[in-house]
Every structure is written in structure tokens, then in C-alpha cells.
Design brief:
Blueprint (H helix, E strand, L loop, with lengths): L12 H29 L8 H25 L5 H27 L10 H13 L2 H10 L3 H26 L5 H29 L13
Helix pairs in contact: 1-2, 1-3, 1-5, 2-3, 3-7, 4-6, 4-7, 5-6, 5-7, 6-7
Length: 217
Amino acid sequence: MFKGIFSGTQRSPLIEAAFDDISDMLRQSAHMLDLALEALLDNAPLQADLDELDDPVDEAERMVRRSVLEHLSFNPQQDLVASLVLVSMVQDAERIGDFARGIGELVPLAKSPRSGPFNEGLRTAARDLRPLFEVTERAFRKDDPEEARRVMSRCSGLKEELQELTRKVADSDLTADMAVVYANAARILRRIGSHLSNIASSVAQPYDRIRHGDEDV
């Protein structure tokens, strides 16, 4: 069984700082998602400006790229694979922030309160998705392929569940505004799961198979 791309390495301070930044990006994006889902699913006021909350995520992406470039310019022999992986991971982490913000953008499109089976279906999916932020972070901080595979497996299942919810929305008699809100919310949650799975694949897969499925999942 493949054992993790970072096993047995002592990372340089710059590379370790880059991993810290990705952890911060995931935590900030999870916070944004919590606020956006509360507004969408509970018909609550949005408690913060998600555009402002997304700014630190974007800045952290720049810091990761800067740290990797600085490290490689001084010591390209050390942490080369980790550096390449970080460039991939940070792209996924930044997109998660964008998608979390996108949930909030759906709220003003709804002309009526959110309730009923589609709302509850999204709530169930979000409840399953949300802990995967912490599992993903734990997987790459501890270099744990088993935890990473848990994320990949659950995200694969969520993808199918959310695609089914979208099909049911398409077949329903919802008003246009509510169909747009529910279908797009399902798509966004699916995309967040895909990006978490991509990050997890950096730990569970060899470098050339990052962002690909795992036959063992």
C-alpha cells in the first residue's frame, strides 16, 4: 500500500510555513462555509462579508507560492516533491474559499424561505461534508494516507448523492428561483468536496496520480 508522499522527510522552515498557510486557508474557508450555509439553509441573516473573509485565503495562496519559490531558489534539492505538491494543493484550497463564498451569493436569489426536502437534503450533505475539512487537514499534517482515503471515499459518495439531488430538482415543480438556488448549492457542495478530495489525494496517491481516484477507496 502506498505510504504517503511526505513520509520520512524533515521539511524546511519555508515549506513548513507553506503547509501552515494551507491549514489556515482550510480553516478560514470552513468558517465561511458555516456562515453561508446558516444564511442559506436556516433563512438567517448573513453574519459577515464573505468577500472580506475570502481576502486572507487569497493572500495565503500568494504566500504559499512565494514560500515555495523562495525555498526552491535557495535549496532546490530539498523538499522538491513537497514543493510541487504544495503548488497543486494551494490551488484547490483557494478554490474552496471561492465556492464557500458562492453559497452566500445564492441567498439573495431566493424569493421565498428555504424549506422542505431539498433544503433538508442539502443540510444532510453539508453535515457530512463539513467534518472533512478537519480530516483533510489532519491527513496532510500527519502524512496519513488512511485519513486521506477516508476523505476521498466520502467525497465520492457525496458527489453521487448531490448529483441525485440535482436530478430531482430538475424534475420538480419548483419555481425558477428556488430551482436555481438548490441546484447551484448542490453543485457548489459537490465542487468543495472534489477540491478536498484533490488535497487528500496528495497524501494518498503517488505524485503522478494526484487528483485521480484511488482504486482502493
